[in-house]
Specification:
- Helices cover 38% and strands 16% of the residues.
- With 212 residues, it is α/β, with parallel strands linked by helices.
- It has one domain: Spore Coat Polysaccharide Biosynthesis Protein SpsA, Chain A (Alpha-Beta Complex), CATH 3.90.550.10.
- Strands 3-2-1-4-6-5-7 form a seven-stranded mixed sheet, with helices on both faces.
- The relative contact order is 0.19.
């Protein structure tokens, strides 16, 4: 099965506020963009992915991610993350070519195409499925077969909410790069240890991140 991924990205100036203890105001927008670029590049290199649709109102991010090969749509509903994802999925399916869709976080800078392929192949067995994040509280990936609505419920405790919505929780080992989103300085340290993409590595080199 081939998937179309929808990736949400808020305006860079407001992105990654929880990284304030690690990155100052002048660095966080560039770091958020680097996360998204490495995430999208890895997703497009995945054999199970036929396209990526980024939903964002940030002009710079839109240009940079389009240059990598992603389609970019505006956040027309303006109703928050879940509305943006539902909108992007609808736009992708309106083309008649999207079929199965999956929502993927934009902050997976260590993402490995082979691990993403494993997760998507497992998800193909179910009408809707999701992968919990490394903290086992949130969600990094939500999938829906071609004949099902995505029904995203990202945000606080999204793991529990996606499970309650009927999506099947994927229990896979060896896919750490697909689970490791980055919200805090500790998250970034773990992602760096996994091995991040080149843009994140360059951006993170400007930060002082203590080893533990």
């Amino acid at each position: 099965m081939q998937w179309t991924l929808v990736v949400p990205l808020k305006p860079l100036a407001r992105a990654k506020s929880r990284l304030s203890d690690t990155a100052g105001d002048g660095l966080r927008p560039g770091l958020a963009l680097a996360f998204a670029q490495d995430t999208v590049a890895a997703a497009l290199a995945c054999r199970a992915v036929k396209g990526v649709v980024v939903v964002t109102d940030d002009a710079l991010a839109g240009r940079e991610l389009a240059a990598l090969g992603a389609a970019v749509v505006a956040d027309e509903p303006g109703g928050g993350l879940n509305a943006a994802l539902a909108h992007a999925a609808a736009v992708a399916r309106a083309s008649g070519r999207a079929g199965a869709v999956a929502a993927l976080n934009a902050d997976l800078p260590a993402l490995r195409p082979r691990e993403l392929a494993r997760v998507l192949e497992a998800a193909a067995e179910f009408p809707r499925a999701f992968l919990p994040d490394a903290a086992a509280i949130g969600t990094t990936l939500l999938t829906a077969a071609a004949d099902r609505e995505l029904l995203p419920s990202f945000g606080t405790d999204s793991r529990a909410r996606h499970r309650a919505s009927g999506a099947v929780e994927l229990r896979l080992d060896g896919v750490d790069s697909v689970r490791q989103d980055v919200d805090t300085g500790e998250d970034l340290r773990v992602a760096l240890a996994l091995g991040v993409g080149p843009r994140t590595a360059a951006a993170a080199a400007r930060l002082l991140i203590p080893e533990q």
